Amino acid sequence: VQLQASGGGLVQTGGSLRLSCAASGFVFEDYAIGWFRQAPGKEREGLSRISANGGTTYYADSVKGRFTISRDNAKNMVHLQMNALNSEDTATYYCARVRREFRDYALFRVWFMRRYYTDWGQGTQVTVSS
Predict the structure, then answer these.
(1) Is 42 exposed, middle or buried (0-12, 13-18, 19+ CB in 10 A)?
(2) Cα distance between residue 58 and residue 56, in whole Å
(3) Rounded to 10 degrees, what is the CA torsion of 47, 19, 16, 59?
(4) What distance in Å separates the CA atoms of residue 59 and residue 10, rounded to the nearest whole number?
(5) Are strands 9-12 and 124-129 parallel, antiparallel or unpaired?
(6) Using one digit for the tens of pLDDT, what is the confidence trace for 37-63?
(7) What are the helix (H) ranges across the chain?
(8) Which residue spans within 13-123 are E strands per DSSP?
(9) Distance from the CA of 27 to the CA of which of 102, 113, 117, 120 falls in 20 to 30 A?
């Protein structure tokens, strides 16, 4: 199983980036995928989650209205479109899949908790400069 985040980089305040998460080694369309980020000295923060069929999405308050999650099950890809970036968005961004034992749960109130995800892979660095 592998999930690989890409698309990070250096962007100015107010700019946009589109992150991608490429998945392999499992039945992609059976699993919800989450995006997280971790800034130096801070806890890993859940940003967004998309259900297996793409019909349900969740967002953290910190990114709601600025970030959009989407998936292409034909290509085993999940994307995170990030707009109106600011310095608070500087972090390493990770994607992960929901753990198998929670695959059939909506996780409505806990979707942002790390414990429900696995197969993190390497992240991609996003740096927002002022």
Answers:
(1) exposed
(2) 7
(3) -20
(4) 23
(5) parallel
(6) 999 999 999 999 999 999 999 999 999
(7) none
(8) 17-24, 33-38, 45-50, 57-59, 67-72, 77-82, 91-98, 117-118
(9) 113
